[in-house]
Amino acid sequence: MRSWLRWVAVACVAAVGVLTPIYGPRALAEVDIFLAEDVDVDGLTWVDAAEILRTAGIDRSTNVWEPLDELEERIAAHPMVVAVKVRRDLPRRLAVEVQERIPVGLVPTPTLEAVDGEGRYLPIDPAGVSIDLPILLPRADPTAEDPRPTRARVRNLARLADAMRKDPVFWSRVSEIRELDDGTVVARWGAPDEVEFQLDPEADLARLREGLAALEEEMRVFGDELPEAVDLRWADQVVVRYGS
Fold first, then answer.
1. Residue 91, preceding bond cis, omega within 30 degrees?
2. What is the C-alpha separation between 78 and 73, in angstroms, rounded?
3. Residue 21 in contact with residue 27, Cβ under 8 Å?
4. What span, in angstroms and rounded, lies between the C-alpha atoms of 175 and 189?
5. CA–CA distance, 127 with 112 (Å, rounded to integer)
6. Nearest in space to 163 (alpha carbons), one of 109, 199, 195, 196
7. Which of these, 162, 169, 232, 220, lies nearest to 196 by C-alpha position?
8. Which domains are seen in the chain, by residue range?
9. H, E, C per residue of the chain
10. Are 119 and 151 in contact (CB under 8 A)?
11. Residue 155 pLDDT level (bands cut at 50, 70, 90)
């Protein structure tokens, strides 16, 4: 059969699949001409595309007419995946769009483990990838038997780190976020000279930017002399402290 006639036939068969959504795809999934020769995976930074394909069970035997919802369900079960969308690009291509979980900090457990903005531990090996994130140090729990802090203990620090991540200036220089015994959170900012941002645990991005604006104004007035701390623990008030 001439090439153009062959693809006309393919188009007709595919049209049958589209127009008969219940039985058509099941039948077309048995047709070798629709084997997925090309699979594109987009949206990945921390996970290898091959790992996503293994999770989905996509290989050289996968047909583009296999149920997409089943492929999406398997990929969504991966601990690094927030959301996923798989679509067909007929006749022989699958496109996979993944939304990954974003690491926002490293928690000593005692080895360093990455967490996302919800305090969820992520399967990222900091030794195996280039990762520059603040260290998150929740307050000590003397009753805990496991040295690895629970997600509940890490969650608030992770939420603050995620808020800081949304401000490139703040995020570029924060090195540590520590929870003190009284519940105050201290973020160490700047290098080599450091400023402590003293925060209420419920601080949000707007509050962080108020503190950063106050610091920038102090530096404009006093030049290179950095304050010791920027205290944001009281509502509607920013206190800038200098050492004795």
1. yes
2. 9
3. no
4. 6
5. 9
6. 199
7. 232
8. 3-25+34-100 (3.10.20.310), 105-241 (3.40.50)
9. CCHHHHHHHHHHHHHHHHHCCCCHHHHHCCCHHHECCEEEEECCCCCCHHHHHHHHCCCCCCECCCCHHHHHHHHHCCCCEEEEEEEEECCCEEEEEEEECCCCEEEECCCEEEECCCCCECCCCCCCCCCCCCEEECCCCCCCCCCCCCHHHHHHHHHHHHHHHCCHHHHCCEEEEEECCCCCEEEEECCCCCEEEEECCCCCHHHHHHHHHHHHHHHHHHCCCCCCEEEECCCCCCEEECCC
10. yes
11. very high
Whether the pLDDT of residue 11 is over 60: the answer is no
Distances (CA, A) of 91 to 17, 31, 35, 56, 98: 12, 11, 8, 20, 22
Phi (first) and psi of residue 210, to 5 degrees: -60, -45
pLDDT band at 244, cuts 50/70/90? low
Looking at the predicted structure, is the pLDDT value of residue 200 above 80? yes
What would the two tokens of residue 155 be? 């969650």
User: Who's near 77: CB < 8 A, 6+ residues apart?
Assistant: 55
Contact in structure between 181 and 139 (CB atoms under 8 Å) = yes
184, 231 in Cβ contact below 8 A?
A: no
Q: How many whole angstroms separate alpha carbon 172 and alpha carbon 151?
A: 25
Q: Which residue has the higher pLDDT, 86 or 91?
A: 86
Highest mean pLDDT: which of 25-34, 77-86, 89-98, 190-199?
77-86
**Encoded tokens for 193:** 């000279």
